Fold this protein.
Amino acid sequence: MARVALVTGGSRGIGAAISAALKEQGRTVVANYTSSDAAAEAFHAETGIRVMRFDVSDLAACETAVAQITAEVGPIEILVNNAGITRDATLTRMTRDMWDAVLDTDLGSCFNLCKLTFDAMRTAKFGRIVNIGSVNGQMGQYGQVNYAAAKSAIHGFTKALAQEGARFGITVNAVAPGYIDTDMVRAVPAEVMQKILARIPIGRLGHSEEIGRAVAFLTAEEAGFITGSTLSINGGQHMY
Ligand code: NDP
C-alpha cells in the first residue's frame, strides 16, 4: 500500500511542488494549508491531491488533523514540515506578536507534527521527516531576527530528532532553500531583489520543483542512510 505523506503548506508555492513530487513518487499525499481556500481548491482540482485546512501552529488543531488523516487515509509515515511565514522588521520595530507568530508557525509546527506522528513511525519501523529551513537561517538576514532564529533552530531540531529516530528506521533531514520564485519572495521589494540576485552565483531564483525533487530524494525508501543532514539548495549563494 502507498505510504501516506503529509506536506504542511502543501497547496501553494514550494509545498505544492513537494506534494506533486511525492505523488509522482507513488505516495498518498495530504496537503495542508491554513487560509487560502481558493488556491487549495484549485490545487486539488489540478492534481487530485487531498487538501486539509488547519493551523500548524495550533497543537490541538494538529492533533485533530493527524487523527482524521490516520483514520481516513492511513498512518502518516512521511512528514514534510514546509509551512512557513515571514513577519519582517528590524528588531527595533519588531513586536512580540511578530516574533511569536513566526516562531510558532515555522518552528512550533515542527514540534507539533513530529510529536504527533513519531509514535506511528516508530511502530512502522519506518519514517521520513523533512523540515524546510532556509538560507536565511544559515546566514542571518537583515530585518529577520524572528525568521532567522526559527529557521536556524530547525537545523538543530533536525539533528537532535535524527538521533532519536535512527534506531527505529526514521530519518530526519532538513532542506535549506535559497531564494525560490514563490509568493513569499515576490513580496520582496524590487530594489532588494536586485541586490539578492547579484549575490546568487547561478544568477537566478530557484524553482519550487527543484526543492520538490530534493524532498522526494530524501523521503525515498532507498534514502535510509541519510539522516541529520541539511541539503542546501541556493544557487551557490551560501556554501555551508
Ligand atoms: P508561500 O508563502 O508561498 O506558502 C506558504 C504555505 O504555508 C501556504 O500554503 C500557507 O497556507 C501555508 N501556511 C502558512 N502558515 C500556516 C499555518 N499556520 N498553518 C498551515 N499552513 C500554513 O511560501 P513558500 O512556498 O515560499 O515557502 C515554503 C517554505 O519554504 C516556508 O517554510 C519558507 O520559509 C521556506 N523558504 C522559502 C524560500 C523562498 O524563497 N520562497 C526560501 C527559503 C525557505 P495558505 O495557502 O492557506 O496561505
